[in-house]
Write a sequence for this structure.
């Protein structure tokens, strides 16, 4: 069985499930599991948000999730299981946009692997966020250009988004 | 050759169908396709800001494409504005 | 309502619940939630483990959890909700020893707050781990001495346990 | 005064009841209690290694106690070997 699972969930078919992520990355040999959940919040840059639509190029996103997982697996010597889930469609407040989990023998690797996956997904996956505001306006978020670093998917923790 | 370009994110605001089809020369490279899309946008999308295309990448279903690569023979690509997932 | 919840769960009364942790630290203004789960694994220092007994000085542990939460709350400007749960009693393989969650507006703070809490709990809480091995032997784990740093509860990420 | 000392972790191996009660002078400090417990251990716990006590801290239900502090007036303390939670 592959040590990673990648999911794109259309919100109209139900939300992402952190419990399924925890279960997938659990292993008798693993003492540490780190999980990240990204949720739609009610404000961004001072504007009141009512929801977010996620647009996604699904085949490339799934391909990229698998590449991210394989690279993190190599970095951590295969002693890691990973779950990468992202929602698409129109999400309301509190809905889960992203669920990432990493299971490893010890906690330090779990935290680092989880963070590495989250940053890579945020900075390299073909996913676009359109925020909807209470005044009926909406706007596509500023993002990371994929030009010129087609082979680099590491992302940078210092990015603003 | 005909190239079907899938549109994402802010590009959809200009083409709600989410796709445009352009005719380009056989053997054209990604950079040529970029020029063709820029010309199409200038002609058809009155509110389009050219800066968006500059920061956008072309991609197949499995990889981001470099400017010097030939356009995929199956004639299917996507144009990816700066990404903002998560 | 206080922005943190601290739980000591006797394993005989049921396990820790990561879902409850996620729910507690959720907030309409929070976009990022980081969760850590510590599980009993099947091997340690090369010996096959069959279970772990956790001994705990509960009143001091609960007092310490609250202090840790309050300090992390101060460090992150009150824009954080925290959940700290630890099990006591005899745990079997795969049982959850520890569940920590942090919810914050953005992901970087969530990861950092969660990690800070985990390290502080591991290095300063009056909790003792006795490993049971398949040959019937058992041993108390090496730990962090609380002597001489009674007022320092930060812990160090580089610690071996 | 009588002081009830709760035992945790490896200390329990020597006293399964998890508690010892020692008589110390009124006004004694934590360092005095440490000496008294060391003497008790040497007399009653044949397999006890003194190093464990050196690395252990006394505590009340709300705080780790410094060596120079008086023993709590309520006569209840705990001895905490190096901790290993999580």
């Amino acid at each position: 069985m592959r040590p990673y699972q990648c999911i794109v969930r259309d919100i109209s078919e139900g939300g992402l499930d952190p419990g399924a992520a925890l279960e997938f990355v659990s292993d008798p040999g693993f003492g540490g599991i780190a999980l990240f959940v990204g949720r739609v919040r009610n404000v961004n840059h001072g504007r009141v948000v009512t929801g977010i639509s996620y647009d996604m190029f699904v085949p490339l996103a799934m391909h990229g999730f698998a590449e991210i997982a394989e690279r993190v697996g190599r970095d951590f010597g295969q002693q890691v299981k990973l779950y990468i889930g992202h929602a698409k469609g129109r999400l309301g407040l509190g809905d889960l946009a992203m669920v990432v989990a990493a299971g490893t023998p010890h906690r330090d690797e779990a935290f680092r692997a989880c963070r590495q996956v989250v940053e890579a997904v945020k900075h390299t996956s073909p996913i676009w966020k359109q925020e909807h505001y209470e005044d009926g306006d909406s706007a596509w978020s500023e993002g990371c250009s994929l030009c010129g670093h087609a082979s680099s998917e590491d992302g940078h923790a210092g990015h603003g988004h | 050759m005909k190239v079907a370009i899938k549109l994402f994110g802010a590009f959809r605001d200009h083409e709600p169908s989410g796709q445009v089809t352009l005719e380009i020369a056989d053997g054209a490279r990604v950079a040529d396709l970029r020029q063709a899309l820029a010309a199409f946008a200038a002609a058809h999308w009155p509110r389009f800001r050219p800066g968006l295309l500059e920061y956008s990448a072309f991609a197949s279903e499995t990889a981001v494409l470099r400017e010097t690569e030939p356009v995929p023979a199956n004639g299917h690509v996507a144009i990816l504005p700066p990404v903002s997932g998560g």
